Amino acid sequence: MIFILNMFQEYFFVAVIALMFLLACVIELFRTALTFPVKTSVALAYTRGKYDRVVSLIDIILAERYAEVRKIV
């Protein structure tokens, strides 16, 4: 973008459009960097932790049941 701005700086219309696009890109970069979705990530991590605990409990219960079934057969 800076290359285009330097290359076409004698053309006012192209330079203005290039400058506006450059500013839009920089503003979008800062907006993305400053509004990191921390709350959403923490909520997802908490939900996943609960899910992982449930799955591990189910795994333990099923392992015990299959061990009993294998002893009987």
Which key terms come to mind for this protein?
single chain; 73 residues; mainly alpha; rod-shaped; transmembrane helix; membrane; transmembrane
How can the largest sheet be summarized? none
Percent of residues in helices:
over 70%
Q: What series of H and E elements makes up the topology?
A: HHH
Distance between the termini: 73 Å
Proportion of β residues?
under 5%
- Uncertain runs are none
Number of strands: 0
| Assembly type | single chain
Rounded to an integer, what's the Rg over CA atoms? 29 Å
Helix-strand category: mainly alpha
Mean pLDDT: 82
Indicate how many domains the architecture comprises: 2
Tally the helices.
3
Q: Which outline best applies?
A: rod-shaped
Transmembrane segments: 12-30
Keywords: Membrane, Transmembrane, Transmembrane helix
Quick synopsis:
The model has no long low-confidence stretch (mean pLDDT 82). The protein starts with a helix and ends with a helix. The radius of gyration is 29 Å and the shape is rod-shaped.
Structural features, described:
The chain has 73 residues and is an all-alpha fold. The chain contains 3 helices and no strands. It has helices at residues 2-7, 12-34, 38-72. The longest helix is centred in the C-terminal third of the chain and has 35 residues, at 38-72. The radius of gyration is 29 Å and the shape is rod-shaped. The chain starts with a helix and ends with a helix.
